[in-house]
C-alpha cells in the first residue's frame, strides 16, 4: 500500500447552514475498494478514499455527513 498512514480530513458543514467544517483523522486500513484503492477509516464509521488532496466519502455515510467530498491533509510520519 502506498501513501501516508493517515490523513486529517476537512469535513464540510451542512450546506446552507453556514456550519463550520469539522476536522477528523482517518487511518489506512487493510480494506481496499473493488478498484484497488486504499480505504482510510475514522470515527463514527467514516470511510474514505483519497485522490490527491480530495477525500471521497464512501457509503454508507455516517450520520450528519452532508457532502461527498472533503479536503485531505496527509499526516506527518512519526
Detailed description of the structure:
This protein is mainly β. 0% of the residues lie in helices and 46% in strands. The chain has a six-stranded antiparallel β-barrel. The mean pLDDT is 86.
Rg from C-alpha positions?
12 Å
Number of contiguous helices: 0
Please bin the fraction of helical residues.
under 10%
State the separation between the terminal residues, measured CA to CA: 17 Å
- Major sheet: 6 strands, antiparallel, barrel
Uncertain regions: pLDDT < 50 for 5+ in a row? none
What spatial order of strands do you see in the largest sheet? 1-2-3-4-5-6
How much of the sequence lies in strands comes to over 45%
- The structure class reads mainly beta
Tell how many strands the DSSP assignment holds: 6
Shape: globular
* Helix and strand pattern: EEEEEE
Q: Whole-number average pLDDT?
A: 86
State the gist of this model.
With 78 residues, the protein is an all-beta fold. The chain is built from no helices and six strands.
Helix and strand arrangement:
Layout: E1 6-11, E2 22-32, E3 38-41, E4 47-51, E5 54-57, E6 69-74
Antiparallel strand pairs: 1-2, 1-6, 2-3, 3-4, 4-5, 5-6
List keywords for this structure.
78 residues; mainly beta; globular
Amino acid at each position: 500500500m502506498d501513501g501516508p498512514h493517515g490523513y486529517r480530513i476537512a469535513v464540510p458543514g451542512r450546506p446552507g447552514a453556514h456550519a463550520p467544517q469539522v476536522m477528523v483523522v482517518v487511518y489506512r486500513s487493510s480494506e481496499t475498494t473493488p478498484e484497488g484503492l486504499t480505504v482510510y477509516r475514522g470515527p463514527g464509521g467514516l470511510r474514505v478514499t483519497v485522490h490527491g488532496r480530495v477525500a471521497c466519502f464512501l457509503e454508507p455515510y455516517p450520520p450528519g455527513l452532508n457532502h461527498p467530498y472533503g479536503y485531505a491533509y496527509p499526516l506527518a510520519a512519526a
